[in-house]
Specification:
This protein is an alpha/beta fold. 36% of the residues lie in helices and 13% in strands. It binds {5-[(3-aminopropyl)amino]pentyl}boronic acid (OKP) and zinc ion. It comes from Sphingomonas anseongensis. Its cofactor is Zn(2+).
C-alpha cells in the first residue's frame, strides 16, 4: 500500500493543551510521527494541489482566519501559541471581529488545539497528503495518508480536538469533484468525528458512519449520539455507534458489522477510513481495550467490503505502540 507523508507536517508544534484546570504536555506531538514512520517504511511526497480542494470544505473566512491567526496573535502582543478562552455559548451569527481573542473563541471549540506559527503549514500539508493518497486510491484501489495534524473534529468553519482542516472531508469532496458519485466515510477513531458529521449532515452523497466512545462520557460530548441520523437530503446518511468505555473486540466487531452494513447500503464508489489508533487499551487519553492484533481484524473486515479504500490517520497517542498498531491496521489491506 502506498503511503504519503510530507515533512512540512512537522511544522505544528503545540506547546501544550489545557484541561482539568491546568496545562498538560500536548498529546498530539511530533513523536507520533517518528513512531509511525519507523513502522511503515518508505513514504511518498504529496503534490501541491493548492487551496481549491480546501475551499470545497472550509469557508473562506475560516481559511483566512486559520492562515493569519498566529500572526494576529503576535501582532496583538501575545507570546507562544494562540489559544481560545472565551466562546459564544449562544448560537452564532456572522460578524466581523477586531480582536484575535474573539476570533479564536468564534472559530475554536476547545482549549486542546493551539495555533502556533507553523500550524497552517502543517495542516495544509496534512490535507495535501490526504489528497495525494486519495488520487493514488482512485488510480490503484487503496493508499494511506499519514495525516498529522488530524482532521475529523474540524468543521467547515471551526477547529478543535487537535484538528484544523478536515482531511477526510477534503478527500471526499475531491473524489466527488473528480467524478465519483457517492462516498462513504467510516470513522474508527476513539472520538466521534463531529467535524465530518457536521460537514455532511444534510447531504446524501456522503454517508458517514462512526464508532466511538459514548459522548455521554467522552469528548467531544456535544455530538455523536445514536439519534443523530442526518437531516434533509442527508436523513439516514449519518450512523453513530457509540460504545461504552472498556469496549473490547467482540462488542467492537458487532458495531463494525453494523457500520459496514449501513455504509454498504449507500452503494459508495469509494470508502474513506478515518483511522485512529486511540482505541488501543494503553492509550493515554482514551478508554477502549482493543489489542494490537485487533487492528488487523478491523481492516480485514473493512477490506472485505471490496471498495477502493483510502485510509487517513486521525488519533492515537500511545507512542510506544502507535507504529505497531498502524502497521497492523495497514496489513489487512
Ligand atoms: C483527537 B482525536 C484530554 C482532553 C483532550 C481532546 C481530545 C482530542 C482527540 N483528557 N481532549 O480524535 O484523537
Ligand atoms: Zn481520537
Amino acid at each position: 500500500m502506498r503511503c504519503f507523508w510530507d515533512e512540512r507536517q512537522r511544522a505544528h508544534v503545540p506547546q501544550g493543551e489545557f484541561f482539568n484546570g491546568k496545562m498538560h504536555a500536548a498529546a498530539e506531538h511530533r513523536g507520533r510521527i517518528d513512531a509511525m514512520l519507523d513502522a511503515i517504511g518508505a513514504t511518498e511526497l504529496p503534490d501541491d494541489r493548492g487551496i481549491e480542494p480546501l475551499q470545497r470544505v472550509h469557508s473562506a473566512d475560516y481559511l483566512d482566519f486559520l492562515r493569519s491567526a498566529h500572526e494576529q496573535w503576535v501582532t496583538a502582543g501575545r507570546e507562544g501559541d494562540a489559544f481560545p478562552y472565551s466562546f459564544p455559548i449562544v448560537r452564532r451569527r456572522p460578524q466581523a471581529f477586531d480582536r484575535i481573542d474573539a476570533s479564536l473563541g468564534y472559530y475554536g471549540f476547545d482549549t486542546s488545539s493551539p495555533i502556533g506559527p507553523g500550524t497552517w503549514e502543517a495542516a495544509y500539508w496534512s490535507a495535501q497528503t490526504a489528497l495525494a493518497a486519495l488520487h493514488a486510491t482512485l488510480d490503484e484501489g487503496g493508499a494511506f495518508g499519514l495525516c498529522r495534524p488530524p482532521g475529523h473534529h474540524s468543521g467547515s468553519d471551526y477547529f478543535g480536538g487537535y484538528c484544523y482542516l478536515n482531511n477526510a472531508a477534503i478527500a471526499a469532496e475531491a473524489a466527488l469533484a473528480s467524478g465519483r458519485e457517492r462516498v462513504a466515510i467510516l470513522d474508527v477513531d476513539y472520538h466521534h468525528g463531529n467535524g465530518t458529521q457536521d460537514i455532511f449532515y444534510s447531504r446524501s452523497d456522503v454517508f458517514f458512519a462512526s464508532i466511538h466512545a459514548d459522548p455521554a462520557t467522552d469528548y467531544p460530548f456535544f455530538w455523536g449520539r445514536a439519534d443523530e441520523t442526518g437531516e434533509g437530503d442527508g436523513a439516514g446518511a449519518n450512523l453513530n455507534l457509540p460504545l461504552v468505555r472498556g469496549t473490547r473486540w467482540p462488542e467492537y466487531e458487532r458495531a463494525l458489522g453494523t457500520a459496514l452494513d449501513g455504509l454498504g447500503n449507500s452503494a459508495p464508489d469509494l470508502l474513506i477510513v478515518s483511522f485512529g489508533a486511540d482505541t488501543w487499551g494503553g492509550d493515554p487519553i482514551s478508554h477502549f481495550q482493543l489489542e494490537t492484533a485487533d487492528y488487523r481484524s478491523i481492516s480485514t473486515r473493512i477490506a472485505s467490503a471490496g471498495l477502493p479504500t483510502l485510509v487517513l490517520m486521525e488519533g492515537g497517542y500511545a507512542v510506544e505502540a502507535l507504529g505497531a498498531n498502524v502497521a497492523e491496521f495497514l496489513s489487512g489491506f
